[in-house]
Write a structure and sequence with these properties.
The protein has 4 helices and no strands. Helix 2 runs antiparallel to helix 3 and helix 3 runs antiparallel to helix 4. The longest helix is centred in the N-terminal third of the chain and has 31 residues. It is elongated, with a radius of gyration of 16 Å. It starts with a helix and ends with a helix. It has one domain. With about 110 residues, it is an all-alpha fold.
């Protein structure tokens, strides 16, 4: 968010709302991925195979859901109000980070 403030003004209300948005989506995406990963482990697969199957199934769902939300939030940047513009920029950045966290960072912990 700091890098975003170097480029444009960001409303304090947008920062507060996107914090909640990021927390909610991060938990939602992580739960989806973890549940799918545990299902794969219950089938008797090793960690690496379970991660591959998890990313093939739940990973696609999280990715396309995140892309949809990012594109929707970026549409707010076309409005002239500063709050809506900053909500679009900040929200898109937070959602993108939630997707990366759910798909890449979280599954790395299961490899080791």
């Amino acid at each position: 968010m700091f890098l975003l403030t170097l480029v444009t003004d960001v409303s304090i209300f947008a920062l507060n709302l996107t914090t909640g948005l990021g927390l909610g989506l991060g938990i939602d995406y992580a739960l989806l991925v973890v549940n799918r990963f545990r299902e794969e482990l219950a089938k008797g697969l090793d960690n690496e195979s379970a991660i591959v199957n998890t990313l093939r199934t739940a990973g696609k769902t999280v990715f396309y859901s995140g892309v949809t939300v990012v594109l929707t939030l970026l549409s707010l940047t076309f409005f002239p109000q500063n709050f809506l513009k900053s909500m679009g920029y900040a929200g898109a950045a937070v959602v993108a980070l939630a997707v990366v966290g759910a798909l890449i960072l979280y599954l790395q912990f299961w490899l080791y």
